[in-house]
Amino acid sequence: MGAKPPLSPLAPAGFPELPEIAGVSFATTAAGVRYKDRTDVMLANLAPGTAMAGVFTRSATRSAAVLDCQEKIGDAPVGGAAILVNSGNANAFTGRRGAESVEAVTGAVAETLGISATRVFSSSTGVIGEPLAHDRITACLDDLKSALSPHAIETAAHAIMTTDTFPKGSGTTVTIDEQTVHIAGIAKGSGMIAPDMATMLVYIFTDAAIEQDILQDMVSALNRTTFNCITVDSDTSTSDTLLVAATGASGIRVTETNVGFMEGLRRVMLDLAHQVVRDGEGATKFVEVSVTGGASDAEAHVHAKSIANSPLIKTAVAGEDPNWGRVVMAVGKSGARADRDRLSIWFGDLEVAREGFVSPDYDEARAAAYMKNEDIVIHVDLGLGGGTARVWTCDLTHGYIDINADYRS
Amino acid sequence: MGAKPPLSPLAPAGFPELPEIAGVSFATTAAGVRYKDRTDVMLANLAPGTAMAGVFTRSATRSAAVLDCQEKIGDAPVGGAAILVNSGNANAFTGRRGAESVEAVTGAVAETLGISATRVFSSSTGVIGEPLAHDRITACLDDLKSALSPHAIETAAHAIMTTDTFPKGSGTTVTIDEQTVHIAGIAKGSGMIAPDMATMLVYIFTDAAIEQDILQDMVSALNRTTFNCITVDSDTSTSDTLLVAATGASGIRVTETNVGFMEGLRRVMLDLAHQVVRDGEGATKFVEVSVTGGASDAEAHVHAKSIANSPLIKTAVAGEDPNWGRVVMAVGKSGARADRDRLSIWFGDLEVAREGFVSPDYDEARAAAYMKNEDIVIHVDLGLGGGTARVWTCDLTHGYIDINADYRS
Which residues constitute the catalytic centre (chains A, B) (predicted)? Predict the structure, then answer.
């Protein structure tokens, strides 16, 4: 691995104060899976009856741990549950040995905690194509069990990092019938890593009591406008995993009609998604791409992703260049419907193009001044219909090349 | 504009010796459309009866010149024809004024040469969103007409450049029934440019006599495995244009069954396509991505494009890192069918992964030594069926960021 990259200039001031979630405890350890002198295994122990929902990478080459989680996620919440994550090795593209490692780890966690292996969810993140030294993980499980603490979510956020430059956490409270439920989550991810491919991993916990199928529907729906709307470099990991655990320990029941809880969960998911972008490899600018006037929401999303993934737009943002011509290009190439002569574009509040031509109000100096901001909003109106989408990304800088062109050692 | 970028390290030794094409003459001039002290307008005059075929960008925001060419391309070859190209201004996203400029230019060329305006094809390349000063072009047409020469194809290749670092040309001869027909072409393009979006423009000439519809079918078919198989940065121009003009001046007739001519035309198209990649912005490596064993050719192509467009693979190639894990990632995310456990990968002749796992023969030192080559071949076998595809790209380097993050001036 190369030198540790510097803290992202877009990092928050510090790790947030997170509410404790009744029914969840955490422990971490330095198992030496690959990294030296840092924690690399995280265990979350979940109360009996915890409902688990999840969303996973759609990669056709997804990892053994992802396949295992997908198989287990819909099961009824019988008995306790657990999440075990290691960093340093992704256990991806490791053939049959990969599946054997997942079985060994989840089986050992189940035995240690006295729960069913079908209720143990695991993730691995780090270098791919190398067999996972799962013995180093299973050797630590007794120590992890005795270290479990409800106060350790920040150390958990540290243990799952690979080349992230800061730990990511978010939490909120929601009032339901004058009672309070709590939501807290952690994430890792900064696009892809040096020396190798990384993953986005997200774990969110709540003490609300929710049926598994309702929780799954909520998470799947909210994922569409949060994690599925961020992109650092358009490259999709083999291991992306989002798990949401509802312990029910508050005794407060949440149903599909509880808009307040949905909104709280959405806030936490969006905050974590934005933090992943703010830790994007080499990022110096946080960019929101907002598309309105699409023929449909889905087509607006295609345009927004095309803009957010364009290397030419991302380098222009890095260069603080209000290069709206490249936005026209990205709309044109996206494949979704667009009419050149109805297209209008804003950078922040500045209209730069109106109905297919440079705006009569366009002022290059003001646009250039706007681009010096750390947070940039690019807004495109397609003038076709009511479809909208919002996507978040970062700029493409020399830092990205430095991190990813470094030779592995 | 920033400083002129240095000559691509992948540039050929010099401009090739090209055969003269009977029925075609060229002239260039410095009209001052945008650039100073260099030629920026090229006129090609084509003999009566010349058949024209073309392939154009599929961008939804394509330029006025492209729309005009598309309208004219299928017409019967009545009378003489001409191609007029300016560099420095793309006349794209210029609304109704853009179409008026195209009409002004093509109309004036028609009048100067005494041909129909429906037989005048124009292209514009350079900065977008600014009205084209077409008067500067039409003011030069008499001078251009008197300067027309059959020997001026190399100067034509220079006049259409924007931030290309070398002029691109290719030619061949084909023997048909013991007679010789000639093919010669020029191209411009290096992905996208500083200060703004560029285009790929290609003009190929032959003295063979070919029916327009047969020529169009040939060009469309050959385009699929040549220009449609290159990518520098996945960003699609608003102005991409390939025009093929068959003057018939050799008197030698070519039909759809003439495999030799097809093969000659294919060689010229592929050579020009490769030259565009070798002038890719910031390129230091030329990369061939070969995919075999796909469920279909179309799906193999989707995988090949996914690999060739992946920023992580392109930065790994720049860093001379045999990072085959990123190839697995790109196959997984492409959306086309793949089976992780049937996937095999080679860098050059070195097998790095076999059937979903690191190859037993893998030798990191040998793979790293291979990556030091200037030309790199990445071969993926999907193990599913008989589908194949080949795509060409370049690496992603600091040079790309330098060129595209430069502020326009």
Answer: 199 (nucleophile)
Q: Is A249 part of any domain?
A: yes
The answer to whether the bond into B131 is cis (omega within 30° of 0) is no
**Helices (DSSP H) in A127-258: which residue ranges?**
134-138, 141-147, 153-159, 212-225
Same domain? B249 vs B309? no
Cβ pairs A/B, distance under 8 A: 214
* Predicted confidence (pLDDT) per residue in B185-231, tens digit: 998 876 543 233 446 787 888 988 888 888 888 888 888 887 777 77
Is residue B355 situated within a structural domain? yes
Q: Which domain holds residue A295?
A: 286-405
A232 and A251 part of one domain? yes
Clarify whether residues A213 and A298 are in a common domain: no
Our count of domains for chain B comes to 2
Residue contact B401–A401, C-beta within 8 A: yes
Would you call B356 an interface residue with chain A, using a CB distance cutoff of 8 Å? yes
ipTM of the complex: 0.74
3-state SS, residue A179: strand
Order of strands, sheet of B241-246, starting from the edge strand that comes earlier in the sequence: B51-56, B241-246, B201-206, B179-188, B168-176
**A408–B contact, CB cutoff 8 A:** yes
| B6 within a domain of the structure (yes/no) | no
Q: Which residues pair with B172 in a beta bridge?
A: B183
Which of B278, B300, B322 is a domain's end point?
Answer: B278
Q: How far is CA A373 from CA A280, A345, A364, A368, B261, in A?
A: 17, 18, 15, 10, 57
Q: Mark whether B182 and B151 lie in a shared domain.
A: yes
pLDDT above 60: residue A3: no
Same domain, A189 and A249: yes
Instruction: Tell me the C-alpha distance between B149 and B128, whole Å.
Output: 31
Domain termination residue (choose one: B278, B309, B330): B278
* CA–CA separation, B377 and B346 (whole Å): 8
**Is B404 assigned to a binding site?**
yes
- What residue spans of A114-185 are helical by DSSP H? 134-138, 141-147, 153-159
CATH number of the domain encompassing residue A202: 3.60.70.12
DSSP letter for each residue of A218-237: HHHHHHHHTGGGB-SSSPPP
CATH of the domain at B349: 3.10.20.340
B188 token code pair: 């411009």
What's the pLDDT at B102? 97
DSSP B131: -
Mutate to test the interface with B, among A63, A401, A403, A409 (most CBs of B within 10 A): A401
Decide if B319 and A234 are in contact by the 8 Å CB cutoff: no
pLDDT of residue A258: 85
Q: Is the pLDDT of residue B2 over 60?
A: no
- pLDDT tens digit string along B106-163? 999 999 999 999 999 999 988 888 899 999 999 999 999 999 999 999 999 999 998 7
Test the B interface: residue of A231, A328, A372, A394 with most B CBs within 10 Å: A328
Rounded average pLDDT over B235-239? 66
Query: Are both A80 and A144 inside the same structural domain?
Result: yes
Choice between B47 and A226, residue whose per-residue pLDDT is larger: B47
User: Do A51 and A135 belong to one domain?
Assistant: yes
pLDDT at A194: 28
Active-site hit among A28, A29, A165, A199: A199
Interface check A100 vs B, CB under 8 A: no
| Together in a domain, A74 and A193 | yes
Please check whether residue A1 lies inside any domain of the structure.
no
Chain A touched by B368 (CB under 8 Å): yes
Q: Which residues of A touch B323 (CB under 8 A)?
A: 196, 408
